[in-house]
Amino acid sequence: MKVVLHWMNFRYTGTSAFIVVLAFVGDAGFGVLLFLLMISGVVYYIEKLRKTNTYMLFEDSKLTLAEGIFSKSVSELAFHNISMLKTDQSKLGRLLGYGRFAVFGSSGKPISIEPVAAPDSIKQKAVTLVNGDERNTRKDS
């Protein structure tokens, strides 16, 4: 199962676009408007790169979180070391269907990804995968 970022990841681009509209309505000069449009485009491109390069992957017996645009950071956690799965959603997140999904290992340090679509269903699928791995491990022993 692969978990990717929700479209709400582009909230910064929306903010930039709003600033451009305010500048246009506020009768700013063409140079200022062009500069704000370029900044908005750069922010959009960075967020797009972040969205495509950030994911959480549940594999056979481990969890992998990969993130980073220019430098890649990869965290791995074996299923038998997972102590807790947690989701957080704000009121806006519940309305738009996004939130934060965190996995806690035996060290207590969370591996989290946000914003993700439908974090509660991701948690249910993750519980099924993790519990299935624990049952398989017990049968083998």
Describe what is shown at a glance.
The protein has four helices and seven strands, in the order βααββββαββα. With 141 residues, the protein is an alpha+beta fold.
CATH superfamily: Pleckstrin-homology domain (PH domain)/Phosphotyrosine-binding domain (PTB)
**How does the major sheet shape up?**
4 strands, antiparallel
| Morphology | elongated
The run of helices and strands is EHHEEEEHEEH
| Number of beta-strand segments | 7
Strand content: 25-35%
Radius of gyration: 20 Å
Number of domains: 1
Low-confidence segments, given as residue ranges, are 137-141
Overall mean pLDDT: 77
Instruction: Give the N-terminus to C-terminus distance in angstroms.
Output: 26 Å
Task: Assign the CATH class.
Answer: Mainly Beta
CATH architecture: Roll
Number of helices: 4
Q: Tell me the strand order in the biggest sheet.
A: 1-2-3-4
Q: Specify the structural class.
A: alpha+beta
Proportion of residues in helical segments: 40-55%
- According to CATH, the fold-level topology is PH-domain like
